[in-house]
Design goal:
Elements: E1 4-7, H1 11-14, E2 22-23, H2 27-31, E3 37-41, E4 56-61, H3 66-75, E5 79-82, H4 83-93
Parallel strand pairs: 1-2, 1-3, 3-4, 4-5
Length: about 100
């Protein structure tokens, strides 16, 4: 099983993640995370400056924030998705068979 971590400070968004996802508390935790896949809320201030080197990173942001999505891709995220699409695909990203 792949190790998955997420930097998602919004508590309502956090509730949508499976319990097997390691929730990162700080940007320093994000920078030094040891995971195969990292999921981030790219709309959070400075988050793109703390992307970890190594793991695959998938970002999400509001669909109206095209600039942030573009910046996330430029910063090295494997994918940058509008928030609605990200959460629609979340079960697949987490490897849920019914998602």
């Amino acid at each position: 099983m792949n190790r998955i971590a997420a930097y998602v400070p919004n508590l309502m968004d956090r509730s949508r993640f499976a319990s097997r996802v390691e929730m990162l508390q700080t940007l320093d935790d994000l920078k030094s995370v040891n995971a195969d896949l990292v999921l981030i809320d790219a709309s959070r201030p400075e988050v793109l400056d703390y992307l970890p080197a190594g793991p695959r990173v998938i970002a999400f942001a509001p669909h109206v924030d095209a600039e942030t999505l573009k910046l996330a891709k430029a910063a090295g995220c494997a994918d940058a998705l509008p928030r609605s699409i990200f959460f629609k695909r979340l079960p697949q990203l987490l490897g849920d068979s019914d998602g």
